[in-house]
Amino acid sequence: MRTYNTETRIQYKVIKRKKIIKLRKSKGYLFCLKINNNLTIINEIINAPKDFRLIENPILCSYFFNLLRSKDKCCIINGVKKFRISLAKVEEIDFATISILKCIFEEAKSYGIVFEGTLPKSQKCKDFLTNSGFLNNLYSSQDFHEIQIKGNGNYFSLEKKQGKLTKKDFENFENLSIEAYQHVFGVDGYSDQIITLLKEIGGNVIEWSNSYNQLWQIGFYKDNDRVIFNVTDLGKGILESLYISQKLKMIDLFFFRDSLQILSRAFERRYGSLSQEINRNKGLPSIKRIFDENKITNLIVVTNEVLLNFKQPKKSIILQKSNLKFHGTFYQWELDKNCIYHDK
Question: Where are the beta strands (DSSP E) in the chain?
Fold first, then answer.
C-alpha cells in the first residue's frame, strides 16, 4: 500500500492535474482553439430540448451540456470565441438545469468565450429563469446593460487557486444555512448538516476535481416552503476519483456490478480516495448519512455516466453512450418542513 507525505501528495496532484488537462484538451472540453483576430467560423445554433429538466430528462440535458463544452460547436466571429444557443423551444425547466448552465457560462468565461442566445417562448419558463437569478450578471442584447433582478435564487461561483476553503467560505456556508432554516421553519436557527454538506463537497472539489482553477458553484433557491441547494463541479467526477484495489475490482467484476452500483457503494465507503489516506473518503458517506437521518430530502447526484436518485432509486440511470456522460459532479438536495430538526 502506497503512502504519501505532504510534498509527495502535492507532486502527485500536479502531475495528475496536468494529465487530466491534457486529456480534456484532446477531447475539446477546454475550448483550446488557437485563433487570430480576423478569423470567422459560424456553427449552427445549439437548441435546448423541450423538456429541459435534468432530473426528469437527463439524457437530452447531458447531451446539450456536452455540446456547450465542445470546441466543435464553438463559433469564432472576428476572433471572438462564441456559442450560440436557443432556449426558445423549452417548455419545462428545473433549477438543476439552470444551475449547471450557469456554471458552464462561468467556465467558458475563464477561457474568453461568450454565449449569446434566446429565452424560452414559454412565459412560465421565462419567469422561472428570471426568478432563479439565472439572468443576473448577463447582458441584454437590446441595450447591452448588465441584468440585475432580485429573485428567489442565487449562485456563488468559487475559484480555489490556493487549494483550500477559506474563512469567508465557511461564513457563506453558515449564512446560507441560517437563511434556509428561517425560510422553511419560520424561526431563527440554522442547520449544522447543511454546513457539513457544503464543507465536505467543497473539500472534495478542491482536492480532486481538476476543474479549471477548481471552479465550483453553489446554487440556492427559495421555493414556497422549501429551499433547494445544489453544487456543480465541472471536474473529472466521482467515479474517476475513486481508488479501487485490484481485489475489489475482481469482486465487482465477479458480481457484475455496474457503475451505478459502484457509485452507490462509494457512498457507503466501500472504496478509498486516490490519496489512499486513512481519513479520506469520509465525505460521501457523511452526505448519505445526513439524508438517511432525514435532515435533507430529494438527494440527487449526477456524475460521469450515472444519475443516482437516493429518494427514488428506480429513477437512477446509467448514461450509456460517451456523448451523454456528465463531465463533472452535480449534487442537489432540499430542505423542507418534513426534515427532522430541533429548534436551535
Answer: 46-47, 51-52, 75-77, 80-86, 92-93, 114-118, 153-158, 216-223, 226-233, 242-243, 272-273, 297-304, 306-309, 317-318, 326-336
What is the pTM assigned to this prediction? 0.82
Could you tell me where in the chain the CATH 3.30.565.10 domains are found?
153-344
pLDDT tens sequence across 270-307: 655 544 444 344 678 889 999 999 999 999 999 999 99
Of 236, 187, 228, 183, nearest to 209 by C-alpha is: 236
Distance, first Cα to last Cα, the chain = 45
What lies within 8 Å, CB to CB, of 307 at 6+ separation is 55, 58, 300, 301, 315, 316, 317, 319
Alpha helices in 83-236 (DSSP H): 95-110, 123-131, 167-185, 192-208
In sign, the C-alpha dihedral spanning 226, 231, 232, 238 is negative
| The three three-digit cell numbers of residue 307, written as one number | 444519475
Instruction: List every span in the chain annotated with CATH 3.30.750.
Output: 17-151
Residues 59-107 pLDDT 10s: 999 999 999 988 788 888 777 888 889 999 999 999 999 999 999 988 8
17-151 is classed CATH 3.30.1360: no
Q: Cell numbers 424561526 label which residue? A: 187
**How many Å apart are CA 302 and CA 326, to the nearest integer?**
7
Superfamily of domain 153-344: Histidine kinase-like ATPase, C-terminal domain (3.30.565.10)
